[in-house]
Amino acid sequence: MKSKITIYMVIGLALLNSACKKALDLKQQGVYTSDNYFRNEVDAVNAVSGIYSLLEEEDYVGHAEATFDVPSDDYWRSGDHSEDEGIENLTYDASNAAIRYPWKWRYETINRATNCIINIPKITAISTDIKNRSMGEAYFLRAFGYWRLMIIHGDVPIITEDDYSKQTFNVPKSPIEEVRKQIESDLLKAVDLLPESYGSADRGRVSKGTALGLLTKLYMYWEKLPEAITTGQKVISNSHYALAANYADNFTRANETSTELLFSIQAVQTVVQNDFTVYYIPRSWNGYGFSQPLQGLANEFEAGDPRKQATLLSVGDKVDLGDGKGLTTFTADLSATGYAFKKYAVFNTEADGGGVDHSYAVPLMRSADIYLLVAEALIRTQGAGAGDALINQIRHRASASLKPVSGAGMKELIHERRVELAGEDQRHQDLMRWDKKNIVDIAAIYNLAVSKAPLDQNKTVTFVRPKNYYFPIPQVEIDKSKGVLVQNPNFK
């Protein structure tokens, strides 16, 4: 059964518009605003579902947010978006279109969430459980909007509830420390309000574990390692967020009932399509052929690790495209690197009409990520070997034949995060936070031959510290602010 979220998304979007467009000769029945919309429980649920609906936007999480992992050594940009070349080569400036695209959607997420946070408490015709859940979802989704802004840009404007009441939206940037505190505050409220889990009718909604997971990630990026351990253990110890029995099940329709998916993009092919996966599929298979894995990533997998086969398509591999022609072979002409991401090459069966599966739930945060973040925090606070138990749980889930680690340090932890989370848009940010602590040399890594596509072997990537730790504020936003927004350092 498909989640009701996916149906309410469309309804929520329509109802949250401030004005209705005249359609044919139908009489306009009413105009909804924030002041007159929030009347009952159904309105609250629909309004929150309207926040989720933004995740499918191609210029947001539906694709554009993935662009910010393009500089990593996991994959080559490919595709026909010229702006991605500047991101990959670290030659971008504030006018780069890829930097501009998702900015408005992050703030639209914050806008819709804040609208709910202000107005849902005023509703009287609503059960306590639904009110708490809806408020928790809104707090989480607002935190997620600020999280993406903070991760990508560093210092960014915080729009307070008081700003909303005064309709004051052109405000200066807040220091990153204040942005982190804002995210933490929202996530702590979400943890208190959200349920641990849902029934099948509400599959896809964020849970207490989702908020705890993002809070763990926040503490890691904040270098609050003890807090990350305490928070992450609450995810790890809860059976509602247990690892899937099979790694590959996270990247097939089997993930619809997975406890491991803490946060995902949900969709229904005939209602609200999810276009995320189409970017990773070869063009002759009706995809766009972006994000082609590099040799260095393929080399990272140990012999006998089934995660390689679940993650990568290599020349000679067979795939059922659901076209009634049986298995199709992945050939060298389908990729400039020799690989594609099998994780996202998901197709409908022939019985379902074949073609790219636009209903596939794309994982945005998995419990495995939290296991490894806690393992890292343990290693960095208590020394080599302190994270062995958690790393080995991840390895054993992948395959009982993988040799357990013993006395694992950061080298082993870094390896495990790369092969476990390959292509899930964690690598570039991981490398940057480790580079800041002198754990890795990101500049050297990005200039290894295996970190580049065959077409780019003569290219030199120059990573400038601290400039490239964050992306600039889009120039168009600087211009619109008429001097209120100040550009990030080194992007003048």
Automatic annotation (TrEMBL):
It holds the Pfam family SusD-like_3. CDD domains: SusD. Its main location: membrane. Residues 240-490 form the RagB/SusD domain. The keyword Zinc does not apply. Keywords: Cell outer membrane, Membrane, Signal. It is found in: Cell outer membrane. The keyword Methyltransferase does not apply. One of its GO terms (cellular component) is cell outer membrane. It comes from the Bacteria. Residues 65-220 form the SusD-like N-terminal domain. Coiled coil: none annotated. InterPro entries: SusD-like_N (IPR033985), SusD_RagB_dom (IPR012944), TPR-like_helical_dom_sf (IPR011990). Belongs to the SusD family. This is RagB/SusD family nutrient uptake outer membrane protein.
